[in-house]
Each structure stands twice: as C-alpha cells, then as structure tokens.
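## retry 2 of 3
previous attempt timed out at serialization; input unchanged, resubmitting
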Amino acid sequence: MNDAIDRDRELFARIAEVNPGVVRTLSLLLSELDGGGFDPTTMRELGDRIRRIGETSIMRAGRGTAGYGGRDACRPPGSATRPG
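## retry succeeded, writing output
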C-alpha cells in the first residue's frame, strides 16, 4: 500500500466507507507518481490540478456541500463548462 495511505489510514478508511472508488483512484495515482517518468512541466501541471481539486474540496466542506458531484474542480480556471 502507498506510504500516503499508510500515513492517513484513518482518513482513507472514512473515505472508503462512502466511496471506495476514490481510495482506489488515489492509490493508483500515488503509485503512478511514485514511478516517475513525468517531465517537470507535466508534473507541475498535474500538481496544480490536484491542488485545485483539494481547494474545491475544502471550500465545499466549508459550505456544507461536500457531496456535490460537479466536474468543474478538474477544469482550469476560467474554462467554460460544456452543456451536457
């Protein structure tokens, strides 16, 4: 298991109770990042996207809307959402 998951076992256990797919996705992402292979620009861009997802999560928790299932957390700032 990934070091990050081992360190935050309690958090990941709470997440898995609600949505085990999120833990699986995070585990796969962390494994891929540990494997390297990304150039510095790609790594920074990926880190920026992950940071924005985190900021959105924190903001929604503060508003009490943590269960919102929108996709905009993964979009670059200022990009329009395409109709469905």
